[in-house]
Amino acid sequence: MALIVQKFGGTSLGDVERIREVAGRAVAAQKAGNDVVVVVSAMGTETDALVALAHQVSDAPNPREYDVLVSTGEQKTAALLAMAIQVLGVPARSLLASQVKIHTDNRHAQARIQRIDGELIRGELERGAVVVVPGFQGISPEGNITTIGRGGSDTSAVALAAALGADVCEIRTDVEGVFTSDPGLVPNARKLARVSYDEMLEMASLGAKILQTRSVRFGKQYGVPIHVRSSFNDKEGTWVVPESEIMERLVVSGVTYNRDEAKITIFSVPDVPGVAARIFVPMSDAGVVVDIIVQNVSTRGHTDVTFTVGRSDLTRALSLAERLAEELGASGVESNDSIAKVSVVGLGMKDHAGVAATMFQALSDEGVNIEMINTSEIKISVVIEEKYTELACRTLHDAFELDKIVAQEEVL
Amino acid sequence: MALIVQKFGGTSLGDVERIREVAGRAVAAQKAGNDVVVVVSAMGTETDALVALAHQVSDAPNPREYDVLVSTGEQKTAALLAMAIQVLGVPARSLLASQVKIHTDNRHAQARIQRIDGELIRGELERGAVVVVPGFQGISPEGNITTIGRGGSDTSAVALAAALGADVCEIRTDVEGVFTSDPGLVPNARKLARVSYDEMLEMASLGAKILQTRSVRFGKQYGVPIHVRSSFNDKEGTWVVPESEIMERLVVSGVTYNRDEAKITIFSVPDVPGVAARIFVPMSDAGVVVDIIVQNVSTRGHTDVTFTVGRSDLTRALSLAERLAEELGASGVESNDSIAKVSVVGLGMKDHAGVAATMFQALSDEGVNIEMINTSEIKISVVIEEKYTELACRTLHDAFELDKIVAQEEVL
Predict the structure, then answer these.
(1) Is A99 on the interface with B (CB under 8 A)?
(2) Amino acid B406: pLDDT
(3) Most buried by CB count within 10 Å: which residue of B96, B184, B246, B290?
(4) How many other C-beta atoms can be found within 10 angstroms of the C-beta atom of residue A181?
């Protein structure tokens, strides 16, 4: 008998019919002999609607009240799903974060989970109930409702799985697993059987919208096996596991892209110590998240600094950059919001030379110009013109022969 | 400095614009030097939508989960209103039933309030905050969310006012107070300046949809002055107060009507001891709420029994009545759902003879036939054909000269 935590996203819970289907899956898992805890998101786009309401009421909604408001979405789904499971003849009970005791800090709207009591849930499981927990929410030391940031239900699920010592945390979603690239863009993309936490982390932060980065970090930290699989069928999905459990490391296991960024260049900045801080500390203070930073070698005491920011932050970041450029005596500022970041990710890069060379050559052969480059131990990212996104993804997918990885599927 | 509990209904909180107006009223009350606690209903018809969802999921939704679900409506409004008050520069904080500690029994969906802790609210008031409490909800001894029945926010407000020793509980609604009759039906209806708890109770249970009966009972029990007034302006409304505070008792202070009932007659029931029980115990067991019961004097050992039930219960009550009639050897069953109950209510009836006579004569003069009569110490109800409702109300309003009561308005 295993303990399974299943998390279902908003699309899988969009209407009553889908809630019934989810109830069916939870009950099937229980009838197969498992203890089952289900973590739910809000129905469909309900969270967006609640956030919109908050912003209609206030330009800067009070964070404490914001959390009281937006947490109602998941509470609603949890109650409906518990009812739907009961209709199938299985005892079920919703337990809110304040009842479970999902302790967080008090940073409203972006709280961090600190400790979860498992007692109440274990009691319910022992009496044969399926427990339904609204994701995304917690409770502060002061006893106030907190939420843990958009998409936080993944993190809630993995954290609950860790706290309960679950055998698996299933992330049920509208795709069948983690693919070598976005199948919408790269038709011959393949589903990966296994992927390491680190690869998943890179893929998630590089644009793959399957799992929330924080949930993967949690999974890695506590060694929770995560199984990303479909909400709509029972096919095996992708297991996210420790690196030690990956038999055969792929040099590259995925090609991801992100079109949500924009690029800013400050030209001819006097290259003196502390100049980077004078640009990026104010950016950070203004809440602008900077991703890639490239600084060219200095020529005649001056350097060009280029960096990327979220596209929605561009206006703010640009006017700040213009002010800073003036203060620093730079020659000018330029921006471009028609860029894309395309990345290849793979554990095998650690051991294999030549990945960068293969990547750059493949792109060059297709005439795709590389504007910026950023690397880490297991990924290489390039910034290119946005219109080449699809071409670049397909080219790289072929160059690393990702359509040929069948061996992994057969491991299981 | 007074402590005011203000309750706003769903119509007054139907959209963001109205929530802003309500925020304005709460802030105005505070700026006038008062401590202010606001109790809110769900926005507009949100509760109906949540109840409909529950019934889509299950024919008989689990009551515990039903409460988790429907309580989200008020939680949402409470958070939005707290934000809107903050926008006006005044500190505000929503406190859920589980935070305030509004203790109820564990009869889900129809829980009774048992005890309210005032401490947390008093602390917030002391630091100058407006406290916003979602109505309708409580917490069971087991720590589960409960709700106290439809329209329960009135009761929440009065109970909170009692627990906090508030100087007044304002019920802010879409009418300007309690009128001598429904102004929609009787154009010269007048607003009452004061009405006693008992009169208000009778009016509420006889069809005036201004205040929930339970809230009036609570107010009477704990001596909470209730001020029924408009959500949209600051005119004096109607004070609901102890009988001892009513200077001049009106013989009749209101004419109410109810078109939600239907009538069932069982003909020629053998008149033996226990026969009423054999009809009405099964009705009660089946959850049918019976209002008026009339049993004629027995002729040759048989009697006709007529009673009214809620119109929505008619089909169920009728088939039950037919089965019972057969068991009891009655001669037949008849029903009519085109009836109305018209009532006159007034404390002064206690001292004045002839109210019934005036009532019956006035109706007779207009050719309105009386089908059933029911009386209590301070009210007389008659059941008539539904099509005469307006005529009967106007006739009685004139007969008791209710359009002439101006003196009371000037008392204040």
Answers:
(1) yes
(2) 59
(3) B96
(4) 26
| pLDDT for A194 | 92
Tell me how crowded residue B412 is: count the other CB atoms within 10 A of its CB.
Answer: 8
Do residue B72 and residue A75 have CB atoms under 8 angstroms apart? Answer: yes
Rounded distance, CA A189 to CA A208, Å? 13
Q: Does A230 touch chain B (CB under 8 A)?
A: no
Q: Which residues pair with A339 in a beta bridge?
A: A385
Q: Which amino acid makes up residue A396? A: L
pLDDT in tens, A335-362: 999 999 999 999 888 777 788 888 989 9
Reported as a single tens digit per residue, the pLDDT across B169-212 is 999 998 899 999 999 999 999 999 999 999 999 888 787 778 88
Q: Report chain B's C-alpha Rg in angstroms.
A: 23
| Banded model confidence at residue A285, pLDDT cuts 50, 70, 90 | confident
**Closest residue in chain B to residue A96, using alpha carbons only:** B68
Q: In this predicted model, what pLDDT tens digit does every residue of A136-156 receive, in sequence order? A: 999 999 999 999 987 799 999
Instruction: Tell me the whole-structure pTM to 2 decimals.
Output: 0.81
- For A72, the token pair is 């109602």
Query: Which residue of A57, A66, A79 is in closest CB contact with B68?
Result: A79
Q: A355-388 burial string, b = 16+ CB within 10 Å, else e?
A: beebbeebbeeeebeebbebeeebbbbbbbebeb
Residue A355: closest CA among A372, A385, A376: A376
Question: Please, which pLDDT band fits residue A68 given cuts at 50, 70 and 90?
Answer: very high
Separation CA B154–CA B211 (nearest Å): 7
Domains and CATH numbers, chain B: 3-174 (3.40.1160.10), 243-412 (3.30.2130.10)
Asked if A56's CB is within 8 angstroms of B62's CB, the reply is no
Tell me which residue in B65, B72, B83 faces A65 most closely, judged by beta carbons: B83
User: What is the Cα–Cα distance from A150 to A153, expressed in whole angstroms?
Assistant: 8
- Selection from A27, A125, A152, A151 nearest residue A83 by Cα: A27
B84 CB near a chain A CB, below 8 Å?
Answer: yes
Determine the residue of chain B that is closest to A91 in CA distance. B62
Pair B12, B174: CB distance under 8 Å: yes
A16 inside 8 A of chain B by CB: yes
Percent of chain B topping pLDDT 70: 98
Structural tokens at position B397: 């309003």
- A238-250 residue pLDDT tens: 999 998 888 777 8
Q: Is B82 on the interface with A (CB under 8 A)?
A: yes
A359 close to A338: Cβ distance less than 8 angstroms: no
In this structure, what are the phi and psi dihedrals at residue B200, rounded to the nearest 5 degrees?
-60, -40
In 3D, which of B205, B201, B250 has the Cα closest to residue B226? B201
Identify which of B16, B69, B99 has the shortest CB distance to residue A56.
Answer: B16
End-to-end, the C-alpha distance of chain A in Å comes to 20
Nearest to B256 by CA among B345, B356, B371, B338: B345
The C-alpha atoms of residue B160 and residue B139 are separated, in whole angstroms, by: 14
Distance of CA B313 to the CA centre of its chain: 19
Query: A50 to chain B: which residues are within 8 Å by CB?
Result: 76
Query: Who contacts A390 (Cβ-Cβ below 8 Å, separation ≥6)?
Result: A185, A186
Which pLDDT belongs to residue B274? Answer: 77
Contact A66 B56 (CB under 8 A): no
Phi, psi (deg, nearest 5) at residue B210: -85, -45
Q: Residue B254 is which amino acid?
A: G
Q: Is the ipTM of this complex over 0.85?
A: no
